[in-house]
Structure formats: C-alpha cells, structure tokens
Amino acid sequence: MEDHPRRHGQQQQSAIGSKLKILLLVISTNIVSIYLFSASSLESAPRIHLWDSEALLRELSSTRHKLSASEKQLADLHRRLSTSNTLLEALLDELGKAHGDKTPPEDLDGWQNVLSGELKLAVGPHKLPLGFTANLGTDELYPTLGSPCRRFQAELTEYMSYEVGKDCPSDDIFAQRLMLKGCEPLPRRRCHPKSPDGYVEPTPFPASLWTIPPDTSIVWDAYSCKNYSCLVHRGKAKGSYDCKDCFDLNGREKVRWLGDNGNLDFGIDSVLGTKPPGTVRIGLDIGGGTATFAARMRERNITIVTSTMNFDGPFNSFIASRGLVPMHISIAHRLPFFDNTLDIVHSMHVLSNWIPDIVLEFALYDIYRVLRPGGLFWLDHFFCLGTQMNTRYLPIFSSIGFKKLRWNTARKLDRGIEMDEWYMSALLEKPMT
User: Fold this and answer.
1) Same-domain pairing of 347 and 305
2) For the CA atoms of the chain, what is the radius of gyration?
3) 92 and 176 assigned to the same domain
4) Where is the Methyltransferase type domain (predicted)?
5) Any domain includes 3
6) What pTM, to 2 d.p., does this model score?
7) Strands, E, within 54-203: which ranges?
8) pLDDT for 29-70, tens place per residue?
9) What is the number of structural domains in the chain?
10) What is the domain extent for residue 13?
11) Count of CB atoms situated within 10 Å of the CB of 103
12) Is the pLDDT reported for residue 416 higher than 50?
C-alpha cells in the first residue's frame, strides 16, 4: 500500500514523458521539413550576369516562375503542418484519456467529450492562412453548425464516420433525423454521396414540369417505395403518409391553385392580380411537397424556391427533376434569404397548430423579414381548433404587422364536425412603409 502513491506518480511521469517525446518528434519533423524546403529554394537560386541584359531578363523570368512554385510549395507545407498539429492535438487528447486525464469543461466548448477525427476537423475552429480579417472580425473560421448538435455528440460522431474521399454511408434517414432534432445545418463531410445506377439526362424543360422522372434518377435506399409507380399510386393505398398523393401529377396536383372559390381556395391568378403586373418575380414555398405551386408559378415566369423534407419519399430529388429549386431545411431553420428581398412567400398546411406558439411567432417574423415592402404572404389552409382561432392565433397574426388583403375561415370536416377543427386561408401584405 505504501508503494501505491509512488507507482501512481511514476505512471504520471511516464505519461508526461510520452507526450513530450511525441511533441518533440513532431516539432523536429516540422523544423527539418522547413529547413529542407528553404535549402532547396536557396540552392536553386539563379546566377545573374549583370553584363548581359537578355540573360538578365531570362533569369528574372525564371526567378519569377520559381518563386511562384515556391509559394505553392510553402502553402502546401503550411497546410500539412496545420494538419499535423491538429492530429497531434487529437493524439495528445487520446493519450490523456488513456491515462485518466480529465478535460476541463471550458475546453469542451459545450461538447460532452473531447472531439476527434473528422468531427473535430469539421467543427473547427481553423486559423485563417492570412491571419486576422476585418470582414470576419477574427483570425479563425468556425464552420456553421447547429448549436443543438452538441447534445447529440454520439450520433454526430457516427454521422462523421467514413473514409475520406470514398463513398458516404447511405444514411439519409439518420441525417434527416439529426436535422429535425435541431442539429441543422449538419457539418460538411469529405465523402461522395451514393449515385444512382443507370442515371440518364433529365427531361428537358418545360416538359419536365409535368413528367414523372425515370426510376434511375435517384437512390431509393431511404424509402419504402422503390420506384415512382409505387409513389404515384400511394394516394390510393391504405396508410398515412406525408403529402400522400403529391407524386400523382395527373391527380389533384394538376388542378391545384388554378381556380378561386372565393373561400379557402385562392387562385394564383387572383392573388397575382392584387399586385401590379410583373412585380411578383421571386418567392418561397414553405413545405411545398413536390413543388406543384412552384411549377404553376414558373409557368407565369415566377421563380419559387421550395423547402421540403424527405418524409419517406424523395421530395427534394423529385422537385429537382421537374426543373425547379428544392431546399432541404426544416420549419425551425432561419430562412436563408436577406432582409426585404422576396416578392411572395406561400405555405400550405405546414404552418399550423402543431407548432409551439413562440416558434410559430418567430417563423412569422422571419417571413415578414424576408419579404420586401409590399410583398405577399399567402397562408394556405392553416388549421387549428375552433376554440383556438380567435383566442390564440388571431392575436398572433395581428401582432406581426401584416396588412390583411383576404381572410377566410371554414370548418375542416375530414375527421368529423365533432372535432371542431377549422381552416384559415389568408393573403397578407407587408406594408410599403
């Protein structure tokens, strides 16, 4: 028992000695690399003959080329040294773990454990090669990462487990689940997504707007349906699916937003008629399914970006196959547009009473932010309980600052009148001043 403290101290000294040896080895290697690089550069310096002007020009040109090559070599050397330092830090962390060292909480930056491998490299920070820049206000670059990612370190480590430069894991469902937990955006990866077998060129525009793409256009691993025929006919099958009949372009999708019944169903042309011709040019459809709204607007020379998730269906891939622009972000994501830029924002069903009130309020203010003065917010079939309409949601919508152009309500009867569910459709305008 008396020898135990002595042995423990010897183990600590041995651990420190091991770390110092590794540190000295890496530093020595870096110094030798720099010395060899510098020596080779000096030895290759040209001899200048001052009495021969043509030779002097040739030597000067040669020197410029060699200096350019040296700069590239120096940049490559800097990159390698930076990678070596990062790997050294990770190695020292692992050695510390092996010997029972504990990392101070302030060094974890909110993570549960010390980062390593690809996750550590993806999260950063990384020193800027040219040092401090006024544009960033720092000399470091932090890759963008959703703050809740720190709560799911084990899952994120699994997501970042792959061989650099090789194929990524087929983990679309796993990745999207992380996004929906709030880990959005996900970190970038240094691997290649799986490509579909037998891929062919897409259908030319504008025929692509109403054409079902070939099955070979996507990878089907993540979905219960393994071809588009299954998706098209899913609307008639039993079971509950998100946007169940959206892939059937010859069904309800074919007639959506073409007519205006004066109540809940607004028509595109009647909505556009509220603004001077040609002034609605670009916009966003939040939770736009397979982007039929964007297709109808594209026929009117209006560009609409469609945000959607892939809930057991290749929604983003299908939108792209139609020649339209998909955006894979959740409803909780800040809209990636600058202030006062969009002419119109549309949302059908997605913004409803399933969203916590404060989250809905933030989302509505974000929509207000990206709309230009005079821009339109088309809220399409928002649903809630009858008891919530006037007591909860009318005050929320009224507080944002929109001007009401149209506001219609009616019962939602698909689950029975006893459920007391209601729809609301509204056309709101951001004030000009």
Assistant:
1) yes
2) 30
3) no
4) 284-378
5) no
6) 0.76
7) 126-127, 140-141
8) 656 555 555 544 444 444 545 456 677 777 777 777 777 777
9) 3
10) 9-27+72-102
11) 13
12) yes
